[in-house]
Amino acid sequence: MPTPPTHHAPRALLAIIGGGNMGRAIILGALDAKLLAPAEIIVCETDAAKLNQLKGWGVQVTSSHQEALDRLLPTPPSLADINDSGALASCGGQLLLAIKPQSLPTLAAQLAPTLAKNPRVVISILAGTPTQNISNLLGPQSPIVRVMPNTPARLRKSMTAISLAPNCSKHHMTLAYDLFASIGEVVQIDESLMDAYTALAGSGPAYLFYLAEAMTLAARDVGFDQITADRIVRQTLAGAAALLVDSHETPQQLRAAVTSKGGTTEAACNTLDSRSVIDAFRAAIAAGRDRGRELAAGSSPV
Questions:
Q1: Between vectors from CA 92 to CA 88 and to CA 96, what angle results, nearest 5°?
Q2: Quick one: 133 and 240 in the same domain?
Q3: pLDDT averaged per 10 residues, the chain (length 302)
Q4: How deeply is 279 buried, as exposed, middle or buried, from its count of CB atoms within 10 A (0-12, 13-18, 19+)?
Q5: Which of 190, 213, 240 is a domain's end point?
Q6: What is the CATH number of the domain that holds 239?
Q7: Burial class (CB in 10 A: 0-12, 13-18, 19+), 11
C-alpha cells in the first residue's frame, strides 16, 4: 500500500484517477517527453500490482480519490484566468478521468463537493460519455475536456481526438493536448462528431486486425502454414501502413501503383469490389457511430 501522505508531499500538476493500460500509457508518454516530472503526477489506483509499478516510475500514488485531488496545485483564482502563456503551472492542477464509464456516478458523488468549492479542468477519456453527462455529475463549475485516444497509445502511436464542453476554452485544453501529443497524433473536433470519430479511429484498429485475420485465413487456404502465414501478414500490413503514413500520395494512388492491368492485384481487387467490400466498411463505420449515439443516450450495451 502507498505511504500515507504528509504535509511535505509535493503538489502535482496532474491527478489521474485510474492506473490501467491507457492511464499508464499517458504517464509514460508525459515522462518520456519531459512534459511532466514524476513528482508532478499523482495516480489514484486500488490495484496493488499497478500501484507498485507506478511507484517504480517515481510518480505519486494513492488509493484515495480525495487525496489525489488534495495534492493538486491550486487553481487560479478564476479558471477564466488560464491563458496560453506556455507555463503549465499557470493552469493549476488538473484531473484526468481514466476509469470505466460505469464507475463515473460513484466517483462523481465523492468528488463533486470538492469540485464545487475548488473547480478543476477535468480531462475525460471515458468512452461514450458526453461532456454534458460528466458536467451534470461533477457540477458545472469545472470545464470538461473530452478526449478519445485509441489502443496504439501503448506504442505511442495513438490517434486522439479532443473536443471541448461549452464552458471550456482552447486554453483549458493545453495540458490535455500536450499529454496526448506525447503518445501520438491529436486532432480537435466538435463534440457532435465524437461518436463518428470513435467508430472511425477508436474502433479503427479492430478493422485492421479483422483484415489481418482474414488474410491469415486466406494464406492458410492457399497452402502456407500458420507460423509463416502470420509472419507474412504482419510484415505486409506493417510495411503498407508505414508507406501510407510516410507517403504524400492518397490511398487510391498507392493502391493503383500496386495494381497492374490484368495482373494478380487487379483480379483480387475486382473480387473485393464485386462483393462491395468498400460499401461494407462504410456501413460498418456508420453502424458504429449510431451505436455510440445510443450508448451516449443511455441505452444498455448488448
A1: 90
A2: no
A3: 53 93 94 94 93 92 93 75 54 90 94 93 94 94 95 94 92 92 97 96 97 98 98 98 96 97 97 97 97 78 35
A4: exposed
A5: 190
A6: 1.10.3730.10
A7: middle
Residues 29 and 145 in one domain: yes
Residues 158 and 182 in one domain: yes
Q: Give the count of beta carbons closer than 10 Å to the beta carbon of residue 253.
A: 10
Angle between helices 48-56 and 21-32 (to 10 degrees): 0
Q: Is 55 helix (H, G, I), strand (E, B) or coil?
A: helix
Cβ-Cβ contacts under 8 Å for 198 (sequence gap 6 or more): 127, 128, 148, 288, 289, 292
Last residue of a domain, one of 164, 190, 216: 190
Structural domain total, the chain: 2
Domain region containing 254 = 204-296
Task: Choose among 195, 167, 215, 208: nearest CA to 287.
Answer: 195
The Cα 240–Cα 91 span in angstroms is: 41
pTM for the structure as a whole? 0.88
User: Both 30 and 114 in a single domain?
Assistant: yes
Task: Indicate the angle between helix axes 204-221 and 226-246, nearest 10 degrees.
Answer: 140
